[in-house]
Amino acid sequence: MAALRITPLHFPRSPNNRSNRNRPVNQTPRSIFPLELFLQSVVDLTTPERLEAWGLTPNDLVDASMKRCREVAAVAGQLGAEAIRWPSATGAGQSFAIFVDQLRRGSRVRIANSFEIMRPMLDALARGASITALLPEIAELPLIP
C-alpha cells in the first residue's frame, strides 16, 4: 500500500454552459485540498510505456473531448482500480482521478489541509503566476515527483 500526498485543484464547470462565467478565474472563492491517499490499486499512466499499454497516446491526455481517457477510466474502474494517475496537462506534476466508491478495505482518502483562493489569486494564476509563489506553504508539501 502506497501513501501518497497530492494537491488537486478542482474548478467545476457546467457541461451545458460554456460561458465565460464558468472559467476558474470567475469563480470565487476556491480551495486547494492536499490529500493523503492510501491506495492499493492505482492505474499509472505517467510513462509512455504505461500509456501505450492502455492504448493511449500523450495527445489523448490533452484532447478536449477526453473520449479515450473516459473509455480507459471505464475499463480501469471495471477492473477494480481505485484511482488513475497521469501527467498533468500543465506539464508540471500529476493528476489523479479517484474512484471513491471503489476504495478497498484499508484504502482511504483524507483531506490533510485546505487553502482558500480568492479572486486576486485567481487573477494572478490566469496571468501565469505559479500557485507555489502565491501559496508558499504548498511548495513544502511532499508531492509525487
What does this structure look like?
With 145 residues, the protein is of the alpha+beta class. It is built from six helices and eight strands. The chain has helices spanning 48-53, 58-62, 67-78, 119-126, 131-134, 136-139, and strands spanning 2-6, 30-32, 35-39, 42-44, 83-87, 94-98, 108-111, 115-117. A hairpin with a 6-residue loop joins strand 5 (83-87) and strand 6. The longest helix has 12 residues, at 67-78. The protein is globular and about 40 Å long.
- Quick one: how many beta strands? 8
**Global outline:** globular
- The gyration radius over C-alpha positions equals 16 Å
Beta-strand proportion: 15-25%
The side-by-side strand order for the widest beta sheet comes to 1-3-7
Summarize the amount of helix as a percent range. Answer: 25-40%
**What oligomeric assembly is this protein in?**
single chain
What structural class should be given to the helix and strand makeup?
alpha+beta
**What's the mean pLDDT score?**
79
Number of helices, where a helix is a run of at least 4 consecutive DSSP H or I residues? 6
- What is the straight-line distance between the termini? 18 Å
Q: Give the SSE order as H and E letters.
A: EEEEHHHEEEEHHH
